[in-house]
Amino acid sequence: MSEWIPVSERLPDEGVRCIIAMRIPGRFVIDGEPKDGYEIAFSEWHGNRWESVSLAGKTTLHPSMVRHWMPLPEPPDCP
User: Which of 2, 23, 35, 56 has the highest Cβ tally under 10 A?
Assistant: First the structure.
């Protein structure tokens, strides 16, 4: 199983699909105080931006939003 890789250490090769962890300021409210949180998404790195990939299409993300990433595992064999 892959480990989370900080974007400060390295970025994936261009166009490689991966899982990303985005820091979302004020994502949760605990005891009336906003707390930062993370959201997980499928994405691709495109040289200077991330493109989040979902069934709804692609969304461009600012590079500073993404803190960590990991490569997708190999898909299972289909009989």
Answer: 23
